Amino acid sequence: MVQYSQFTHEQLRALKDELEKKYEKFKAEKLSLDMSRGKPAPAQLDLSLGLLDILNSSETLKVEENIDVRNYGVIDGIQEAKKLFADLLHVDPKQVIVGGNSSLTMMHDTITRALLHGVVDSIEPWHKLEKVKFLCPSPGYDRHFAICESLNIEMITIDMLSDGPNMNQVEELVSKDPSIKGIWCVPKYSNPEGTTYSDEVVDRLANMKTKAPDFKIFWDDAYTIHHLTDEHAQLKDILETCQKAGNPNRVFIFASTSKITFPGSGVAVMAASEDNIQFVKQQLAFQSIGPDKLNQLRHVRYFQTIDGIHHHMKRHAELIKPKFDLVLQILQTNLATLDIATWSKPKGGYFISLNTMDGCAKNVVQLAKEAGVTLTNAGATFPYGKDPNDRNIRIAPTYPTLSELETAMDVLCVCIQIASINKLLQ
Ligand code: PLP
């Protein structure tokens, strides 16, 4: 195969005719396939079924500090869960709040409280400012951006490089503008590119001078142990680095067991300096009389130790690695030599990020939709749903079966080829 850019218009038109025949055949199959959201497949959920049997009426439901998990109280989570999640995030249990079922809720509520009341080092609540802005390394997680949009926080797009956000851009902006109060980071196996931040990026984030005294890093470590291979990415410890940099309160870390056990019925956690945790705990007391401690205990009894979680994640990897491999192999076979797309080859996380030629992503997603294959909306991985280059597409391979994935990827590759030819013929 030759690069499309070397074809004459006549050759491209002939190729397009051929591809459109294939496309019409797919359409006639009336497919209904979904590669849009990063959900675990049923076989992955089966791995955690034991959680449902681990607590019963004959179990001891008293835990450390003589807490009865059936009752109200313990706003920051049971001690056993704090220890388990402290091990997961490499922090001290005193730096942990174990919460409810969703880390996204914790992130949303943390920002809402900052707007209403400020954070530990605020001079005034963020809402008192004329404008609040967040830096958004992109492509990134659409639901982070949706939180900002819903709370009227202005988003500034930051380029994602191969080792994390473009720190020259970040440092320049935060050093000048006091209304920039935060940055979204998915630092390990990022959504959607699978990037892990380098030590240098972590150092620069922790050390940079910010005009806002209460600037916060929202460190969404959602995929911290979601490895696909035995080659585990190493992420420098942000909390310790911030502490050493003299900015101990700069970071809020978030994670959950959504993609370890059951999304929607997992356990979420946040970690930060003890000052931050004390401040947040006081605020949380107005929101709740305590989290679902039964579910926290279920998770603790099921996994017992961090090694238990690591072992469990290996079983997840065994189920989903073949799906990632299949997607990558189909992209390689169909597109590698054409010079019309590039894609990430992640070592962990839940997504593959694909870049088409500039100006083609919307067309590709639309063509796929008309052929019965749902992808995440083009643009969703950027603030306000607007990809400035209209090129990024997020592929979520975990939920479909291998055979569904194969068909969906065949359709996607044909759509990418057609959209690229349309562009070249313009
Ligand atoms: N953070 C990231 C980066 C995600 O990709 C997701 C889900 O896809 C979440 C958070 C959601 O987490 P939770 O289920 O704990 O709310």
What does this structure look like?
This protein is α/β, with parallel strands linked by helices. The protein is built from 13 helices and 15 strands. The protein has an 8-stranded mixed beta sheet, with helices on both faces. Strand 8 (180-185), helix 7 (199-207) and strand 9 form a beta-alpha-beta unit. Helix 1 (9-28) runs antiparallel to helix 13 (402-425) and helix 7 (199-207) crosses helix 8 (238-244). It is globular, with a radius of gyration of 23 Å. The two termini are 22 Å apart. Pyridoxal-5'-phosphate binds at residues 38, 102-104, 141, 186, 191, 220, 222, 256, 258, 263, 268. The site of pyridoxal-5'-phosphate has 13 residues, from helix 4.
List the helices and strands and how they pair.
Elements: H1 9-28, E1 33-35, H2 42-46, E2 62-63, E3 67-68, H3 79-89, E4 96-98, H4 103-117, E5 133-138, H5 142-150, E6 154-161, E7 164-165, H6 167-176, E8 180-185, H7 199-207, E9 216-220, H8 238-244, E10 251-256, E11 268-271, H9 274-284, H10 293-303, H11 306-335, E12 341-343, E13 352-356, H12 361-370, E14 373-375, E15 392-395, H13 402-425
Helix pairs in contact: 1-13, 7-8, 11-13, 12-13
The structure holds pyridoxal-5'-phosphate.
